[in-house]
Structures are given as C-alpha cells and as structure tokens.
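Ticket #4471: structure output looks truncated?

Reporter: J.K.
Steps to reproduce: submitted the chain below (372 residues) through the standard prediction queue, then opened the result file.
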Amino acid sequence: MTSTERRFSPFRWLCTVFGLVFYLGDIGSDLLLSVQYFRSGYVTWAALTLAFVLVGSVCIQIFSYAWFKDDEENAGGYKALSTCNLIGIHVLQIGLFTRYYNLLKKSLKVLCSGQNKEEEQLCLFGLATDLSMLRMFETFLESVPQLVLQVYIILEHNHRSNLQYISMAVSFINIAWATVDYRRCLRRSLTHINEMPSGIPTAVYLFYKIFTITPRILSFTLFIMLSTFTTLAMAFVWLVGTIWAFVEETEFCTSRVLEYLYRAIVGVILVFTFFNIKGENTKVPMTMYYIVSVCQNLAAPILLFLLKPESERTDYFLPIMFFILMSNSLGLGFLGLYYSLLHPRGRAADEPDGMGILEAETKTRFDKFLQI
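Returned output as attached by the reporter:
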C-alpha cells in the first residue's frame, strides 16, 4: 500500500464527521420517539423502541472495550486510558463517542502536519475500520429492527407522526452509510487486497445492499402483521445464521464468551443481508442465501393475501407487493453487476511475493472481520 494511493484524506475526515452526525441523529430520533410513545400511552411501543437502542448500544460497548484492551500493547493512542477509565467510559455508553473523538483528533493532527507515513495511515484506517465495524453491529441490532417496528406500527395500527417518519428516514440513511463506509474502510485497512473504487462501483454496491435489505424489512413486517407468532419464524432464521457461524468456527474474539456473542450478532446480520463471515469463497452459500431470501420475501405478501384477504383492500398492500418484486429484482441485478464487472478482485499491485504466507502468520483482527 502506498501512501498516495491510500491515505486518510480530508474527505475521509469529513466522512467520519458525517458518520457521527448520522449516528447521533439515529439514536436521538429513536429516543425522542420512545418518549413520544410513552407520553401517548403506547408503553409497549415505547419499550420496544428503547429496547432496540439499548441492545445495540450495550453490544457495541462490550466489543469496543474488548478491542481497547486487545490493542493496549500497541497503544494506537489509547495507552493513556486506564482500565478504570475504560470501564467507566463503556458503562456510561460513550465508548463509540470516545473512538470518534480519538479518530477525529488523531487524523486532524496528521492532516494538519502533512505527515504521510505509511505507519500513520495504517493506524488511522485501523481506527476507522474498528469504528465502522462497531457501527455495522449497531446498524443491524438497532436501525434495521427499528425500521421493522416502525413500519409495522404505521401499517398495522395506522399510527403516524412526523417523528416516526424522521426516525425511519434517519435509520435508512444510517443503514446505507454504515454498510458502504464499512466496506470501504475494511478494504483500505487490508493492505494485501485491492481497495474498493469510488464512484460507480461504490454506488452499485450501495444499491445492491439497499435493494436486498429493504424487501427483507418489508417482508418481515408483513409476516408480523399476519401474526405476532411469526416472530418465532424470524428467531428460527436467526438461529440458522448463528449455527452457520458456529459451523464455520469463526475466530474473531480472544474470549470464548465474546466469540459466542459475536456469532449471535452475525446471525442477526444474516437475517437481513449476506456477509462472508470468514473471508472464504462463498459463491454457493451466497447463491443459496439469496434464493431462500427471495422466496421468503415473496411468501410474505402471498400468505397475507391468502390468510388475511381483507389486506388486499388496504392502500398499502399492492404498492408494497410491487416494491418487494421490483426491489428483489433490482437488488439481485446490482449484485450480479457488481460481482461480474466491478468487484475489486485480486491482491494489491505492490504485494510482495509470499504475502499469502506472511498473512497467515500475522493475521490481524481486520482479516477476521465480516467481508464480502
């Protein structure tokens, strides 16, 4: 990796700021929405809205703390934080904000000083990748389930408010941003592979993810409208994804307990989208995943029509069914386009001979991150 090709640019710094703003907007709007529900007497909705926020926050604080401890020997700007300080920061649920502060401060210092050393750039992208992975966890533990809940409330109970729409819009933006930002940060932090090109490849990857995740959200909403007991079916889908993570024997965490939690979170992510959990060839699993996913997405409106015929007369049924059909088609089309023409295959051009062996000996945490 050369510093001119992969350097932490001012635009990358601004992207980090945007990521922080989107995160604050997502969490803040959901908290305000929970308060609104509670004041209106919808205690169950308020509790569920708040629960998704808390579950996502607690999980990312746990992993943030563990990674701080893992990186203590290498410092990375964190050596000044004692164990007591780390515990306090994460108990107060501000571990992510601490990471944002450290990254913005360190990267701004490098940008202002004009330093362009490879070691500095690797450190910055390492910090950014850790942050983007935590944001990915938060997105699928909080933003995506939150969208399912709010769409269900609007369609099933016809309860609408401006704050709901704001919360949903910010969650959707957060999903789009976190997914693409994670992909780009991860590939930039791995020096032995080509980074993700900007422009059309990034846009196509974004469309692929958005148009495959959105019908999942809508189909699960329709399933819940059919019967709240269908949440058990969703739990089964999560269980299958978690079992797959166990079968793959992921080695992401230094602690066995954390590894189990990680595999459970991977199961949640696999409910909504596909990720390569071990960096191996997954052409067959990906194909099977999206075949099953499309079948589930199409089954939702069909079952709702057959078991609840009155749903056909609603103003949302036909638009949602049409959108699920179109979104599935577009998502798979963008997926095929990305992997056939735009995927940054291969290793970096400046990779020295024998990198495969070196990589196996010096495997970093980033090599174990979710990849696709």
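Triage note (M.O.): checked the attachment and the full token line is present. The first helix runs from residue 10 to 39.
Status: closed, working as intended.
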